[in-house]
Specification:
By secondary structure, the protein is α/β, with parallel strands linked by helices. Helix content is 34%, strand content 15%. The strands form three sheets. Strands 5-4-1-2-3-18 form a six-stranded mixed β-sheet, sandwiched between helices. Strands 8-7-6-9-10-11 form a six-stranded parallel β-sheet, sandwiched between helices. Strands 14-13-12-15-16-17 form a six-stranded parallel β-sheet, sandwiched between helices. α4 links the parallel β4 and β5. α7 packs across α15 and α14 packs across α15. The chain is globular and about 80 Å long. The two termini are 23 Å apart. The C terminus is likely disordered.
Length: 523
């Protein structure tokens, strides 16, 4: 069994084969360059393979059902066969739940292959392929062609120049989370993530992997992540300590405080430590203290030369989702998830069970650059209410005025909640409308779909909602892209202020589409 994905799904025209508009002639089927080799490589790696394709030519009378079947048989002949074909025969006027960018075909393909969308990755050449995958909760890789729009390339969570490169990317992600050989059993392992609640939540799969292979897990975290740490499965003990080289608003380094932390780490009696960091942080200051505390084996990511501070020096290429980045650190130390764990985000004791009874809108964000303008969100709440949704507006203690304004008299303001109460609230929602901030990851952890009003200051492929149905809105190609800005550098905040309420309403409907009726053609 593979660690990350069970199945790879392909778009047909423009991805696997050269796009011949409304083709009903099998003699015109031509594989894209490198396509057969890429398919063979993925099949040999153990993935189940399927095709999900819009074929509106059937509804438009451009070819017959028999001609469509003949073309698909030719595709099977050229590529060695696919285990499922999922086909939408409708055109854009049908309003069906299967036509991409709706998630229906991806959901149906996962079901036919005996897995879930979260364990699938979709490869396509246009934005609606990516959107369908994300709306189903699957991963996606865009392989652009001359017809791919620049905005679609900018919005994609991952891109590849060819099918060959897309296959290599998928296999590289698998290799990163495949556990290395361990030197021996683990008794007490200290795991570290000293960041905010959202950072802590995306580290959860990595911590669960360590817990699967250790007798006892002690988590060192900072004050901003303490509440989230208390919700993570697999943690036996929590130590809260502010690390000045990690904290967003650090005080001076105090020698007595560092000495006290070193003593505390020694008292843990850990056999080894696994240090989780974000891509812009260094694990080496803490590694020095861990060495002074007598920890014998230390694993962490380090681009800088670590000398004798690390036993396992791990490196990760850019663009990997943060949850997988964390898993890769655990895997480098020799820890993997238990069978049946799909690698998604989790919190203890809270999980979404049904379709949800209301929409939650969370207007706040951890920094100004990621916040959707209140005026825009106020109009969004009004539009959702007009569409028949009950809308709950949430906010922290310092966001009460913001929440009141955004609710606009039509949304219901939710009082102060603990993080667990927020998780329970999200578990009862049909979806969450939110920026790139902690509640987006909390929604993913309970299994609730997310409409992500996403400022592109950091890559969506790394920080977007992980393994949960999601729709991305906002200008992915805005000038603030990849700047990591905390304050918007562009007047008017155009990447988010230009979002139209109707787009949010349509996104909520898309996520609520559910499993569609579908047409399956035997491979």
């Amino acid at each position: 069994m593979t660690e990350l994905f069970d199945a790879v799904l392909f778009d047909r025209d423009g991805t696997l084969i050269v796009d011949v508009p409304y083709n009903g002639d099998p003699s015109l089927v031509e594989p894209m360059p490198g396509a057969r080799e890429a398919v063979d490589r993925l099949r040999a790696a153990g993935y189940r393979l399927g095709i999900v394709t819009n074929q509106s030519g059937l509804a438009r009378g451009r070819f017959t059902a028999g001609q469509l079947a003949a073309v698909n048989r030719r595709v099977d002949e050229l590529f060695g066969g696919f285990e499922t074909w999922q086909i939408c025969p409708h055109d854009d006027t049908a309003g069906c739940a299967c036509r991409k960018p709706a998630p229906g075909l991806v959901v149906a393909a996962a079901e036919a292959l005996g897995t879930t969308p979260a364990r699938c990755v979709m490869i396509g050449d246009i934005g609606r392929d990516v959107d369908a995958a994300q709306a189903a909760g699957a991963a996606a890789v865009l392989v652009p062609t001359p017809v791919t729009l620049p905005a679609e390339v900018a919005a994609a969570p991952a891109t590849a120049s060819s099918l060959t490169e897309a296959a290599a990317l998928i296999l590289r992600r698998e290799a990163l989370v495949t556990p290395a050989q361990r030197p021996g059993p683990a008794a007490t392992v200290l795991v570290v993530r000293s960041d905010s609640a959202g950072d802590m939540l995306v580290t959860g799969p990595g911590i669960r992997a360590v817990a699967h292979g250790a007798e006892r897990v002690v988590l060192l975290c900072g004050p901003r992540g303490r509440d989230a740490a208390g919700l993570l499965p697999g943690v036996d003990e929590i130590i809260e300590w502010r690390l000045p080289w990690i904290d967003a608003q650090p005080g001076p380094v105090d020698a007595d405080d560092m000495a006290a932390l070193t003593r505390k780490l020694r008292e843990v009696g850990a056999d080894e430590a696994v240090v989780f960091t974000s891509f812009h942080q260094s694990a080496l200051p803490l590694a020095l203290l861990l060495r002074m505390a007598g920890v014998g084996r230390i694993t962490a990511i380090s681009d800088d030369y670590p000398g004798s501070l690390l036993d396992v020096r791990h490196r990760v290429p850019p663009g990997i989702p943060e949850a997988e980045r964390a898993r890769s650190v655990a895997a480098a130390a020799g820890f993997g998830l238990p069978p049946g764990d799909d690698g998604g985000l989790r919190v203890s004791g809270v999980r979404r069970q049904s379709g949800g009874e209301y929409v939650v809108v969370h207007p706040g964000a951890s920094c100004e650059a990621r916040s959707c303008p209140p005026e825009t969100l106020r109009r969004v709440v009004a539009a959702l209410a007009a569409d028949g949704h009950r809308v709950l507006v949430t906010g922290g203690p310092e966001e009460r005025v913001l929440a009141s304004y955004v609710s606009g008299g039509v949304g219901v303001e939710v009082g102060r909640t603990s993080l667990r109460e927020m998780a329970e609230l999200l578990a009862g929602a049909s979806c969450l409308v939110v920026g790139n901030t902690g509640p987006a990851h909390l929604a993913a952890a309970v299994g609730t779909p997310v409409v992500s009003l996403y400022a592109p200051t950091v890559p969506y492929g790394q920080w977007g909602p992980y393994r949960v149905p999601n729709v991305r809105l906002g200008d992915a190609g805005a000038p603030c892209r990849d700047t990591r800005a905390t304050v918007c550098p562009v007047a008017g905040h155009p990447c988010l202020s230009d979002i139209e309420p109707r787009e949010v309403v349509a996104a909520v409907r898309l996520l609520a589409a559910g499993a569609p009726e579908r047409t399956e053609v035997a491979a």
